[in-house]
Amino acid sequence: MIPQLKEFTIIGLTLILAPVVSIxxxxxxxxxxxxxxxxxxxxxxxTARALARAAEGLLGVPVTVDNKGGGGGTVAAGLLVxxxxxxxxxxxxxxxxxxxxxxxxxxSYKPSDIVGVIQxxxxxxxxxxxxxxxxxxTIEDFIEYAKKNPGMSYATAGGGGxxxxxQQMGVEALKRCKxxxxxxxxxxxxxxxxxxxxxxxxxxxSGSGSHNPLVVDGIFRQLVLFQTVxxxxxxxxxxxxxxxxxxxxxxHSGMIATVRTGTPPAIVKKLEDAFMxxxxxxxxxxxxxxxxxxxxxxDSKTLNRDLALETAWYKDYFTKTGDLK
Length: 325
Description:
2 domains
């Protein structure tokens, strides 16, 4: 009886697993959609489109990019979770939509609803960015003016309300350190923030990366960096610590590809393998360098481990600030 039971068990498992294996082998057999958490032209969008173009060649199906900016990435994350966990909807966005937003605001998903596929870069921690033709040549000029003119406005990619991004957290640190008062204007992405600054609709931005080419082109000027060490691309720009402000780098908000939890592991692996190959290619890395974006590659296992660590870091941080909901 026991051998017979074992035989039936094996047959039963085979029947159960067969559809899963078949689905993974057949995947993909229709177009894939990339939801991008920020507006067209933002650094996340630029990288997503490069990833999509290369993925079409590797996966053999069309990959469309659909920009769903808003809510600091929560709009796109909510849309991802509303779709079937079949690998045909991928979210390209920031780790902050998973690690910080759900703790501070009402969202339509839980962090556990989303699983990481890969990380390929991370966002600039932020800096005070002003028009190149502004009267502020140094951070000291800027601080002196801000003290005499409270309520200066600044834009960031996403954000709003409680500071949930390193870009907004950096401005808050500068405010506390120097006794300043600023008005925050959240946007749907770095491109919108840059446009607002170019049009003089805000006094400055705290850039997440898309401002860098405009700094190089002489359109914008950076006055201080929200990090503990200087940026090799802009070695002349000092850090918050160098101007006497207490500042601890928060975890870098990574640029990541994710899918809905419940997606068959074999499909997640197929996406991971394709995206890892693309991210390591010379073409993709050149695109990152051209946009002054750092290369930081994490596979699915490492990314999901770090998402948990980042979530814990921010939970502790927001508990200390009294902002945890």
